[in-house]
Specification:
Helices cover 54% and strands 0% of the residues. It has 156 residues and is mainly alpha-helical. It is elongated. The protein starts with 23 loop residues before the first helix and ends with a helix.
Length: 156
């Protein structure tokens, strides 16, 4: 297990019961992860819920380090399981792939990036050319236009 030598101050619970955290949980979750078990199994083994597990990681640097190592070991287990079964006649590749994508999003989720660019890969240029031929308006239409522009200028 990866250990941290730095001793950070441990936050106290401001209200409620004292924390059930025990340093031996670090080794326990890493062991569970080497068996391919994930977050739920780790939390249940510690007798806590997922939120508490992440709170402990914030408050106990050794637990945070253990969670990171456990996640790596869990992924290693699943990758080895996939490799060892890859050539089996009844290997369920779609099930394995879906599980890997759900468990290890960073490494196993396909991402499609779509970029839109202008000519030669540059920025997209947008030109707006508006023109109004006022000579085509009669006197009443020009007066109405002046009135509307005055109202717009006043913010009405």
């Amino acid at each position: 297990m990866v250990a941290s030598n730095a001793k950070a101050p441990v936050k106290k619970n401001p209200v409620g019961r004292p924390s059930k955290y025990k340093p031996e949980y670090c080794e326990m979750i890493v062991k569970l992860a080497t068996e391919g078990k994930g977050w739920v199994s780790w939390a249940l083994a510690c007798g806590i819920d997922r939120t508490t597990m992440f709170d402990w990681a914030e408050n106990h640097p050794d637990f945070s380090t253990a969670l990171k190592e456990a996640k790596l070991r869990e992924q290693e287990w699943w990758e080895e399981k996939g490799k060892s079964c890859m050539e089996a006649k009844n290997f369920q590749s779609a099930v394995w792939r879906t599980s890997m994508q759900a468990r290890f999003r960073e490494d196993y989720t396909e991402r499609k990036v779509q970029e839109v660019t202008g000519k030669d890969g540059g920025a997209i240029r947008h030109e707006h050319k508006a023109s109004l031929d006022l000579s085509a308006l009669d006197e009443a239409q020009r007066d109405k236009l002046r009135e509307l522009l005055t109202l717009a200028k006043k913010g009405q």
